[in-house]
Amino acid sequence: MERQMNKPLFMAYATQKGGVGKTTFTVLTASYLHYEKDLTVLVVDCDYPQYSILQMREREIETVSKDRQLKALAYEQFTRLDKKAYPILKASAESAISIVEEFLEQTKVVIDLVLFDVPGTVNTSGMYKLLSEMDVFLVPISADRVVLESSLNFAKAIGEMIKANPQKQLYLFWNLVDKREKTALYDIYSKGVASLKLPLLKTRVPDTKRYRKEILGAGQRPFRSTLFPPDRQIAKGSNITELIDEVTETLKL
After folding, report:
1. 118 in a domain, yes or no?
2. Chain segment 195-252, per-residue pLDDT in tens
3. 252 in a structural domain
4. CobQ/CobB/MinD/ParA nucleotide binding domain spans which residues (predicted)?
């Protein structure tokens, strides 16, 4: 994907349905790419009023500062990488772009990717303008018929919005995949998505509680963290790194 020189890629996991894990996907993507894949990431937390990612960072800093093993792990990681934890900016949907532009003008660090944790409802003030600035949209969908129809309608609306700009890209992916459901069901639904000419990634993310696993202290390696990449052992079978790898390969990052 071609980009303007010196301009980072703006990307967001976006949906009009809550509870699909877009904040978790944002954190896992940012941490995996920043700490494992040699990209430099900036995260913008626009999810008012909870600002979940910013709160997660604050909890982690406090936990790591009190845990000798985690402190040693963090020291080793940041020394080896020779870079700091990715910054997290707090913004409203209306102010997000101007805050990012100001940050990019002032920082001496070259940012490759800006991940926006956007509000969970499209009715939020400034949301349309914020979405119009994105280069890449990643839309999680699930096999629940009501949720799927809502997500597809949202994706079609995004597709119409970006139709005039071929540089902007939209990709859907299966999330919360129930292992008890037959694969054929997802294949049938996937054909329906394809008939709408909506690009669908190959990687399917299973429904699992491991996404909730944060740093708890006592040297415990995390899965979801703003300071560390997803633990490889815990990540096995989650398809998270496979999903992110597919995204970066598709976008040629």
Report:
1. yes
2. 999 999 999 999 876 666 665 555 566 788 999 999 888 888 889 999 999 999 999 9
3. no
4. 13-211
Per-residue CA distances from 31 to 5, 24, 25, 40, 226 (Å): 24, 11, 10, 10, 6
Q: What is the DSSP string of the chain?
A: ----TT-PEEEEE--SSSSS-HHHHHHHHHHHHHHTS---EEEEE--TTT-HHHHHHHHHHHHHHH-HHHHHHHHHHHHHHTSPPPPEEE--TTTHHHHHHHHHHH-SS---EEEEE--S-TTSTTHHHHHHT-SEEEEEE-S-HHHHHHHHHHHHHHHHHHTT-TT-EEEEEEEEE-TTS-HHHHHHHHHHHHHTT--EEEEEEEP-GGGG----STTPPPSS-SSSPPPHHHHTTT-HHHHHHHHHHHHT-
Condensed to tens digits (0 to 9), the pLDDT of residues 143-177 reads 888 888 889 999 999 999 898 898 999 999 999 89
Q: Which amino acid, 177? A: V
Mean pLDDT of 2-7: 60
Question: Which token pair is 196?
Answer: 């709408």
Q: How many domains does the structure of the chain reveal?
A: 1
In a domain, 153, yes or no: yes
Burial status of residue 30 (CB atoms within 10 A of its CB: 0-12, 13-18, 19 or more):
buried
Considering the domain boundaries, does residue 158 fall inside one?
yes
CATH number at residue 103: 3.40.50.300
User: What range does the domain containing 98 cover?
Assistant: 9-244
Residue tagged 């000419």 (tokens): 197
Going 79 to 42 to 20 to 214, the CA torsion angle's sign is positive
Other residues' Cβ atoms within 10 Å of the Cβ of residue 46: 24
